[in-house]
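[step 3/7] fold_predict: job queued, chain A
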Amino acid sequence: MKYEATIGIEAHAQLLTASKMYCACSTGYTTAAANSLVCPVCLGMPGALPAINRRAVEFALITGLALNCDVAEFSKFDRKNYHYPDLAKGYQISQYDLPLCRNGWMDIKTDDKTKRIRIQRVHLEEDTGKLMHVQGQSLIDFNRSGVPLLEIVTAPDFTSVEEVRAYAQKLHTALRYLGVNSGNMEDGALRLEANVSIHPAGTPANGNLVELKNLNSFRALWRSVEYEIQRQKELVLAGGAVRRETRGWDDVQGVTFVQRSKEHADDYRYFPEPDLPPLEIARTWVDELRAKLPELPADRCHRFATEHSLSSYDSALLAEERAVGDFFEKAVAVGRAVSITPKAIANWLTTDLFHLLNETGVEIKDIKVAPAQLIELIDLVGRGAISRASGRHVLKVMFETGKSAADIVNLEGLVCIADAESLTSVVDEVIHDHPAAAAQYKGGKEAVLRFLIGQVMRATGGKADANRVAEALKRRLIG
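[step 4/7] structure written:
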């Protein structure tokens, strides 16, 4: 018998607010001393009163709108009661029956097929403290306690690991584009959970759900889902039954393991948070936020391809990060005045500039090269004022110092050798010094021309144009 999988995804995204969800403590816990960013509210002291972070509500609304959700005009906060050492109050202030946003969707693509994934709810809650297990002891740092969390819950619409991968990556990019989440999964800023069940192919989904908790990387998400689907199939085919339970993921062993049984529905004893008023969201506020939504990556990618005649590959690279797309568009606007094509700009961005970004770990928003400066460099190369090789060197110096391309070219004397007589003299020297290579080319071995071009470029210190060098070599070798 064949079995099919049914999968739902829950994402917990820390919001990029300056202060916590219900108090004024800083959210910069990653670099702070343990338990230094706390107050009576986030420590759950008796009598401490929470207050709703307006910025967090705004970020939740922005995300809900981007995910095509309906925004509730009336919502409220609830107490979700459970007892773990890292939850100081013994309950979490969350949302239950009246979330801020619901009934949304996101389209994903797998194998050139588009599928709509339903978003059931987007709601606000608070993060817990952090447990650390050291030398047989358990320590708690409450700095993270109270950091605003946005929970995004899908319907069980996924049937494969490929669909899960496509959704997770697209959601991750969207959250970063919106500026509501850092996307740093290794720091726990975005944690994913998957609910996995199987059922006989062609029948309604009715299997027991297994919840895979706190997956902090894309790799862990799809490896754990893939493993869990196979584990459940093997279990059922061997005559066993899948239990409703929560399982963790051992990334080293590549297996899921039981954390706790969930034979019955969790009873968190939700009840309305008595210390917080209900939220009434004005339509005018929602309309203002909707009008400010940025163009999301999929739409931007499509526009880059159609408007600038770029390949789908280049368009996707340029649209993946909002700051990169913004840099490209500014450069295109400047480049129009000097007839620099979007394709030429894309080539420099996705090769030379990306190489420098990857090599240094610097983000494009922090670089010393402005879009107009990049256009100046591309124009110098395009006009033949400097060679492409010199252009790469100039960009590296610009990246390190912030100096203009013209200043670097003048300072280092990188202007191309435009004098035909001087270039011919260097070409003749190279042919004289490499008679075997010259003879091979004359004999029909055209590939050796690259070697000779390289020798001329080396002799000129990269100041010659490679195309002109090739033409000069051909003239001298074959007439």
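[step 5/7] annotate
The chain has a mean pLDDT of 93.
The longest strand covers residues 113-126.
exit 0
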